Model the fold of this input.
Amino acid sequence: MASYLAEQLKETGNKHFKNGDYAEAASLYGQAIQKNSSNPLLYTNRANARLKLHQWQDVIDDCLRSIELRRDNMKAFFYLAQAQLELHHPNEALSSALTAYELCTSSPSQTSSAFTIAQLVRRCKIEKWNIRERQRIRQRSDLLAELLEKLEKDRIGELQDIEDKERQGLVGRVESEDRRKEVDEEYAAKMDELRNVFAIADPKNLEKREVPEYLIDDISFEIMHDPVMTKNGHSYERATLVEHLKRSALDPLTRTPLSVNELRPNLALKKACDDFWDHSSGWAYDW
Done:
Protein backbone atom coordinates (compact mmCIF):
# COMPACT_ATOMS: atom_id res chain seq x y z
CA MET A 1 0.00 0.00 0.00
CA ALA A 2 2.82 2.40 0.94
CA SER A 3 4.60 1.75 -2.36
CA TYR A 4 1.42 2.41 -4.29
CA LEU A 5 0.83 5.73 -2.49
CA ALA A 6 4.45 6.69 -3.09
CA GLU A 7 4.04 6.01 -6.81
CA GLN A 8 0.90 8.15 -6.93
CA LEU A 9 2.64 11.01 -5.19
CA LYS A 10 5.59 10.69 -7.59
CA GLU A 11 3.32 10.84 -10.64
CA THR A 12 1.60 13.96 -9.28
CA GLY A 13 5.03 15.45 -8.59
CA ASN A 14 6.07 14.72 -12.18
CA LYS A 15 3.08 16.71 -13.45
CA HIS A 16 4.02 19.70 -11.32
CA PHE A 17 7.64 19.41 -12.47
CA LYS A 18 6.60 19.47 -16.14
CA ASN A 19 4.53 22.58 -15.42
CA GLY A 20 7.52 24.33 -13.85
CA ASP A 21 6.17 24.19 -10.29
CA TYR A 22 9.40 22.82 -8.87
CA ALA A 23 8.71 23.67 -5.22
CA GLU A 24 5.45 21.68 -5.21
CA ALA A 25 7.12 18.87 -7.14
CA ALA A 26 9.92 18.67 -4.55
CA SER A 27 7.33 18.62 -1.76
CA LEU A 28 5.39 15.77 -3.38
CA TYR A 29 8.56 13.77 -4.00
CA GLY A 30 9.39 14.28 -0.32
CA GLN A 31 5.99 12.90 0.67
CA ALA A 32 6.60 9.93 -1.61
CA ILE A 33 9.93 9.30 0.13
CA GLN A 34 8.14 9.24 3.48
CA LYS A 35 5.94 6.46 2.12
CA ASN A 36 8.77 4.51 0.50
CA SER A 37 12.23 5.61 1.64
CA SER A 38 13.96 2.65 -0.02
CA ASN A 39 13.25 3.77 -3.60
CA PRO A 40 16.41 5.48 -4.95
CA LEU A 41 14.57 7.03 -7.90
CA LEU A 42 12.42 9.17 -5.62
CA TYR A 43 15.55 10.86 -4.29
CA THR A 44 16.83 11.62 -7.81
CA ASN A 45 13.43 13.04 -8.75
CA ARG A 46 13.54 15.38 -5.78
CA ALA A 47 17.19 16.21 -6.49
CA ASN A 48 16.24 17.29 -10.01
CA ALA A 49 13.49 19.57 -8.67
CA ARG A 50 15.86 20.99 -6.09
CA LEU A 51 18.40 21.69 -8.83
CA LYS A 52 15.84 23.97 -10.44
CA LEU A 53 15.35 25.67 -7.06
CA HIS A 54 19.12 26.14 -6.59
CA GLN A 55 19.04 24.14 -3.36
CA TRP A 56 22.52 22.79 -4.00
CA GLN A 57 23.26 21.16 -0.62
CA ASP A 58 19.85 19.48 -0.57
CA VAL A 59 20.56 18.13 -4.06
CA ILE A 60 23.82 16.65 -2.81
CA ASP A 61 22.10 15.04 0.17
CA ASP A 62 19.43 13.46 -2.05
CA CYS A 63 21.94 12.18 -4.57
CA LEU A 64 24.21 10.64 -1.95
CA ARG A 65 21.24 8.86 -0.39
CA SER A 66 20.14 7.62 -3.82
CA ILE A 67 23.64 6.33 -4.55
CA GLU A 68 23.69 4.50 -1.23
CA LEU A 69 20.56 2.65 -2.34
CA ARG A 70 21.67 2.12 -5.94
CA ARG A 71 25.32 2.48 -6.83
CA ASP A 72 24.77 2.53 -10.61
CA ASN A 73 22.28 5.42 -10.53
CA MET A 74 23.61 7.53 -13.42
CA LYS A 75 21.17 10.40 -12.85
CA ALA A 76 22.19 10.70 -9.20
CA PHE A 77 25.85 11.18 -10.16
CA PHE A 78 24.81 13.60 -12.94
CA TYR A 79 22.75 15.79 -10.60
CA LEU A 80 25.38 15.48 -7.87
CA ALA A 81 28.08 16.82 -10.19
CA GLN A 82 25.95 19.83 -11.13
CA ALA A 83 25.32 20.76 -7.50
CA GLN A 84 28.98 20.28 -6.56
CA LEU A 85 30.01 22.49 -9.45
CA GLU A 86 27.60 25.22 -8.37
CA LEU A 87 29.11 25.09 -4.87
CA HIS A 88 32.57 25.55 -6.45
CA HIS A 89 33.86 22.05 -5.70
CA PRO A 90 35.22 21.18 -9.18
CA ASN A 91 37.35 18.21 -8.05
CA GLU A 92 34.36 16.43 -6.52
CA ALA A 93 32.14 17.51 -9.42
CA LEU A 94 34.58 16.12 -11.98
CA SER A 95 34.71 12.78 -10.19
CA SER A 96 30.90 12.57 -10.07
CA ALA A 97 30.52 13.65 -13.69
CA LEU A 98 33.07 11.09 -14.89
CA THR A 99 31.20 8.36 -13.01
CA ALA A 100 27.93 9.47 -14.63
CA TYR A 101 29.65 9.44 -18.03
CA GLU A 102 31.05 5.94 -17.47
CA LEU A 103 27.64 4.62 -16.40
CA CYS A 104 25.97 6.34 -19.33
CA THR A 105 28.31 5.10 -22.04
CA SER A 106 28.27 1.54 -20.69
CA SER A 107 24.47 1.31 -20.78
CA PRO A 108 22.61 1.21 -24.14
CA SER A 109 19.44 2.55 -22.49
CA GLN A 110 21.21 5.76 -21.37
CA THR A 111 22.90 6.80 -24.62
CA SER A 112 20.67 9.83 -25.21
CA SER A 113 22.33 11.52 -22.21
CA ALA A 114 25.92 10.89 -23.28
CA PHE A 115 26.51 14.19 -25.08
CA THR A 116 24.95 16.24 -22.25
CA ILE A 117 27.05 14.47 -19.63
CA ALA A 118 30.20 14.90 -21.74
CA GLN A 119 29.52 18.64 -21.80
CA LEU A 120 29.23 18.61 -18.01
CA VAL A 121 32.55 16.76 -17.66
CA ARG A 122 34.21 19.39 -19.84
CA ARG A 123 32.68 22.18 -17.71
CA CYS A 124 33.98 20.54 -14.54
CA LYS A 125 37.46 20.12 -15.94
CA ILE A 126 37.55 23.69 -17.26
CA GLU A 127 36.36 25.04 -13.91
CA LYS A 128 39.01 22.99 -12.10
CA TRP A 129 41.63 24.44 -14.45
CA ASN A 130 40.28 27.99 -14.03
CA ILE A 131 40.51 27.76 -10.24
CA ARG A 132 44.12 26.64 -10.54
CA GLU A 133 44.75 29.53 -12.91
CA ARG A 134 43.19 32.06 -10.55
CA GLN A 135 45.36 30.75 -7.73
CA ARG A 136 48.47 30.93 -9.92
CA ILE A 137 47.75 34.49 -10.99
CA ARG A 138 46.90 35.60 -7.47
CA GLN A 139 50.21 34.24 -6.22
CA ARG A 140 51.92 36.44 -8.80
CA SER A 141 50.18 39.65 -7.76
CA ASP A 142 48.87 40.59 -4.32
CA LEU A 143 47.04 43.62 -5.72
CA LEU A 144 45.31 41.58 -8.41
CA ALA A 145 44.31 38.99 -5.80
CA GLU A 146 42.81 41.69 -3.59
CA LEU A 147 40.81 43.22 -6.44
CA LEU A 148 39.55 39.84 -7.68
CA GLU A 149 38.49 38.90 -4.16
CA LYS A 150 36.58 42.18 -3.87
CA LEU A 151 34.76 41.52 -7.16
CA GLU A 152 33.90 37.98 -6.06
CA LYS A 153 32.44 39.24 -2.78
CA ASP A 154 30.37 41.81 -4.67
CA ARG A 155 29.11 39.11 -7.04
CA ILE A 156 28.08 36.81 -4.20
CA GLY A 157 26.37 39.74 -2.45
CA GLU A 158 24.29 40.57 -5.52
CA LEU A 159 23.32 36.93 -6.03
CA GLN A 160 22.27 36.69 -2.37
CA ASP A 161 20.17 39.82 -2.76
CA ILE A 162 18.38 38.26 -5.75
CA GLU A 163 17.70 35.07 -3.76
CA ASP A 164 16.33 37.12 -0.83
CA LYS A 165 13.96 39.02 -3.12
CA GLU A 166 12.76 35.80 -4.74
CA ARG A 167 12.17 34.23 -1.32
CA GLN A 168 10.16 37.31 -0.26
CA GLY A 169 8.08 37.12 -3.43
CA LEU A 170 9.34 40.47 -4.73
CA VAL A 171 10.52 38.91 -8.01
CA GLY A 172 9.45 35.77 -9.86
CA ARG A 173 11.57 32.70 -10.58
CA VAL A 174 12.09 33.50 -14.27
CA GLU A 175 13.11 37.08 -13.54
CA SER A 176 15.52 36.00 -10.80
CA GLU A 177 17.06 33.38 -13.13
CA ASP A 178 17.64 36.04 -15.78
CA ARG A 179 19.11 38.42 -13.23
CA ARG A 180 21.48 35.77 -11.84
CA LYS A 181 22.73 35.09 -15.34
CA GLU A 182 23.26 38.82 -15.94
CA VAL A 183 25.20 39.20 -12.68
CA ASP A 184 27.44 36.21 -13.44
CA GLU A 185 28.16 37.49 -16.95
CA GLU A 186 28.75 41.04 -15.72
CA TYR A 187 31.28 40.00 -13.08
CA ALA A 188 32.98 37.46 -15.35
CA ALA A 189 33.56 40.30 -17.83
CA LYS A 190 34.89 42.59 -15.08
CA MET A 191 37.29 39.92 -13.83
CA ASP A 192 38.50 39.15 -17.35
CA GLU A 193 39.08 42.85 -18.02
CA LEU A 194 40.99 43.21 -14.75
CA ARG A 195 43.18 40.19 -15.53
CA ASN A 196 43.84 41.53 -19.03
CA VAL A 197 45.03 44.85 -17.63
CA PHE A 198 47.48 43.10 -15.32
CA ALA A 199 48.48 40.65 -18.07
CA ILE A 200 49.47 43.54 -20.33
CA ALA A 201 51.72 44.82 -17.55
CA ASP A 202 53.26 41.38 -16.91
CA PRO A 203 52.38 39.10 -19.86
CA LYS A 204 54.88 36.38 -18.98
CA ASN A 205 53.36 35.62 -15.58
CA LEU A 206 49.81 36.99 -15.59
CA GLU A 207 48.43 36.10 -19.02
CA LYS A 208 45.26 34.02 -18.67
CA ARG A 209 45.73 30.48 -19.97
CA GLU A 210 42.59 28.92 -21.43
CA VAL A 211 41.80 25.65 -23.17
CA PRO A 212 39.10 25.96 -25.88
CA GLU A 213 36.31 23.50 -25.19
CA TYR A 214 36.23 22.27 -28.79
CA LEU A 215 39.79 20.94 -28.44
CA ILE A 216 38.86 18.55 -25.62
CA ASP A 217 38.41 14.87 -26.44
CA ASP A 218 35.08 13.36 -25.36
CA ILE A 219 36.63 10.07 -24.23
CA SER A 220 39.74 11.00 -22.25
CA PHE A 221 38.75 14.68 -21.79
CA GLU A 222 42.33 15.63 -22.57
CA ILE A 223 43.43 18.14 -25.22
CA MET A 224 43.54 16.52 -28.65
CA HIS A 225 46.59 16.18 -30.91
CA ASP A 226 45.26 14.08 -33.79
CA PRO A 227 41.45 14.41 -34.06
CA VAL A 228 39.44 12.10 -36.29
CA MET A 229 35.80 12.38 -37.31
CA THR A 230 33.14 9.66 -37.30
CA LYS A 231 30.36 9.23 -39.85
CA ASN A 232 28.02 11.00 -37.40
CA GLY A 233 30.21 14.10 -37.30
CA HIS A 234 31.69 13.62 -33.82
CA SER A 235 35.42 14.18 -33.39
CA TYR A 236 37.69 12.34 -30.97
CA GLU A 237 41.40 11.92 -30.35
CA ARG A 238 42.48 9.13 -32.70
CA ALA A 239 44.43 7.09 -30.12
CA THR A 240 41.69 7.11 -27.47
CA LEU A 241 38.96 6.29 -29.99
CA VAL A 242 40.93 3.41 -31.52
CA GLU A 243 41.55 2.04 -28.03
CA HIS A 244 37.83 2.38 -27.24
CA LEU A 245 36.88 0.52 -30.43
CA LYS A 246 39.05 -2.41 -29.36
CA ARG A 247 36.67 -2.87 -26.43
CA SER A 248 33.41 -1.84 -28.11
CA ALA A 249 32.57 -1.41 -31.80
CA LEU A 250 30.21 1.47 -30.99
CA ASP A 251 30.52 5.25 -31.11
CA PRO A 252 31.10 6.36 -27.46
CA LEU A 253 28.41 9.05 -27.61
CA THR A 254 25.82 7.86 -30.11
CA ARG A 255 26.31 4.12 -29.44
CA THR A 256 25.91 3.43 -33.15
CA PRO A 257 28.12 0.82 -34.90
CA LEU A 258 31.56 2.20 -35.74
CA SER A 259 34.80 0.75 -37.09
CA VAL A 260 38.34 2.11 -37.42
CA ASN A 261 38.02 2.06 -41.23
CA GLU A 262 35.21 4.63 -41.03
CA LEU A 263 37.34 7.25 -39.27
CA ARG A 264 38.48 10.30 -41.21
CA PRO A 265 41.03 12.97 -40.21
CA ASN A 266 39.44 16.24 -39.11
CA LEU A 267 41.91 18.53 -40.85
CA ALA A 268 40.44 21.85 -39.72
CA LEU A 269 40.36 20.75 -36.08
CA LYS A 270 43.86 19.27 -36.43
CA LYS A 271 45.16 22.67 -37.51
CA ALA A 272 43.45 24.31 -34.54
CA CYS A 273 45.05 21.73 -32.23
CA ASP A 274 48.50 22.28 -33.77
CA ASP A 275 48.18 26.06 -33.43
CA PHE A 276 47.11 25.72 -29.81
CA TRP A 277 49.99 23.42 -28.87
CA ASP A 278 52.50 25.62 -30.73
CA HIS A 279 51.43 28.72 -28.78
CA SER A 280 50.81 27.19 -25.35
CA SER A 281 54.53 27.34 -24.43
CA GLY A 282 54.27 23.93 -22.77
CA TRP A 283 51.79 24.88 -20.03
CA ALA A 284 48.99 22.86 -21.73
CA TYR A 285 50.69 19.66 -20.58
CA ASP A 286 49.53 20.57 -17.05
CA TRP A 287 45.86 20.36 -18.14
Notes: The domain at 213-286 is CATH 3.30.40.10 (Herpes Virus-1). Residues 7 and 169 are 32 Å apart (CA to CA). The chain has a mean pLDDT of 90. The first helix runs from residue 2 to 18.
